[in-house]
Design brief:
This protein is α+β, with helices and mostly antiparallel strands. The protein has four helices and six strands; from the N terminus they run ααββββαββα. It is globular. The chain starts with 7 loop residues before the first helix and ends in a 6-residue tail after the last helix.
Length: about 120
């Protein structure tokens, strides 16, 4: 049994490249532009959480062997990404892109900005 991960650094240390690079880039960018949103660990994954409960809104970044995933409860905003990310895979609360799809990065960053805006969080 593996020990629970309690910090962002512990989570990142478990990721191989390029997964670590993608997740780090999105965490760093989000933290820099939205410093009022706390970065917390949720189910051993780093998450930017907007309220007392994750159900009040969040943005989370995770990675697997071949892809990067952005998670949120903004289901309609995720659906709006479908035409802009034709190579992506979509879940109800997530969008998954392959690490080879660098063109997806600015679109996903725009998505994060849209989620933040919806929650009244200004970009710094």
């Amino acid at each position: 049994m593996t020990a629970p991960m309690n910090t962002v650094e512990e989570y990142l240390a478990t990721l191989p490249e390029p997964a670590r690079g993608w997740v780090s880039e999105f965490i760093d960018d989000t933290a820099a532009h939205y410093p009022s949103v706390p970065l917390v660990m949720f189910r051993q994954r780093p998450m930017f959480k907007f309220g007392a409960s994750y159900q009040q809104g969040y943005v989370m970044f995770t990675a697997a062997k071949t892809h990067f995933t952005v998670h949120s409860v903004e289901f309609d905003l995720i659906q709006q990404l479908r035409p802009r990310l034709p190579k992506a895979q979509f879940g109800k609360g997530s969008v998954k892109v392959r690490f080879t799809d660098d063109a997806a990065k600015p679109i996903l960053q725009e998505y994060v900005a849209a989620v933040m805006s919806r929650h009244g969080i200004d970009r710094v």
